[in-house]
């Protein structure tokens, strides 16, 4: 029977420790607060949460769970999971002191082959720059080689009737591939879900789609699945960014509420109405620009109506400004990378692939292709254009002839057939030195940076 030590037994640590015990691990929970330990060992969950209470009572019945505030008792564990608070200080800067204290508890006990998981929310770089060096000092072992250091951010949503620590999909990252694998296997064991690689997770989920009456398919997120990130920093960033996205979205609906006040609308009814749309809600991805007749247009109407009613919707204005600046940003990326290769934009042959506003449509309205093309023209680039969905703008009859002789390519639209065709293209062989992927549709690892510089938007 494997021994697990959980450090910090609050909203995150107690349910997790309970889950491990229920799944057959021998669990020793450690918390520095004696009142927490006394409560747990007398069979009382020290906070109120239905799912946590049920899981805790199952754990106590299993006989596999004990709690202590004596750190010297942690000797038998081979898996250490840290779930201590990561608050902000009075200046709203991250306060890592509870995490640093927890490392002092774990470090001296570490042995070769152990797995350490940080579940506490941390900013990108914390595990590599703060946790790993301190654990190395305390244990005299090399993190990533002698023991595994992983980050698996907790996403628990206390009070949620459906989602709990036993079924929320997880992401893991580690200092080494082997560490990520070890952590993923452990979480798959307690959560019961499948393991995915972040590079292929979207495609891998496809078999789990369900069909509608026309035979079309809709995605379903598998419960308790584990997705392995490429690095521990990526795993840290997933948590930090997913919560930021939520924060911005909440700010955004706060702005919708203010608009609704100005226009005398009921924002709750409207949000409930919007919530009936089963698609187009997320995930959202960055790109060369937002086009089409809806997303690039409707906010402008709302802005105008709101301004006329006396309320200035700053977040929408900012979001619009950000999205409309993306073609300029994309050209800047191209310019920088051409410069890196000693080439100016002026006079350089640039192939633009895709002209419609999104994939597999011939709709050109508000397509970022137009501002991108105009900026490049103003800067003096020699343009070649190809899109099988919109022959009107084509300067060449196929992808290969558009690319052959060009020095750079900019992908504006990720049509299914364009993407499939590009995966077989020998960019270097055609003389291309820079590829700007405005839709992040190609695999960055398929490019050899020596011959072709590949750059996506934000990757
Ligand atoms: N609460 C949530 O909904 C939630 C959700 C996802 C992630 N998180 C993250 O999980 C982490 C833990 O949050 P929480 O809500 O469980 O906090 P909490 O305050 O409920 O529990 C933390 C426990 O850790 C103990 N502790 C503090 N320092 C310690 C130390 N050095 N050694 C041993 N025990 C120590 C505290 O006494 C407390 O019982 C945080 O990073 C938080 O951001 C929380």
Automatic annotation (TrEMBL):
Keywords: NAD, Oxidoreductase. Coiled coil: none annotated. Residues 351-444 form the UDP-glucose/GDP-mannose dehydrogenase C-terminal domain. SUPFAM superfamilies: 6-phosphogluconate dehydrogenase C-terminal domain-like, NAD(P)-binding Rossmann-fold domains, UDP-glucose/GDP-mannose dehydrogenase C-terminal domain. Pfam families: UDPG_MGDP_dh (PF00984), UDPG_MGDP_dh_C (PF03720), UDPG_MGDP_dh_N (PF03721). The keyword Oxidoreductase applies. Belongs to the UDP-glucose/GDP-mannose dehydrogenase family. This is Nucleotide sugar dehydrogenase.
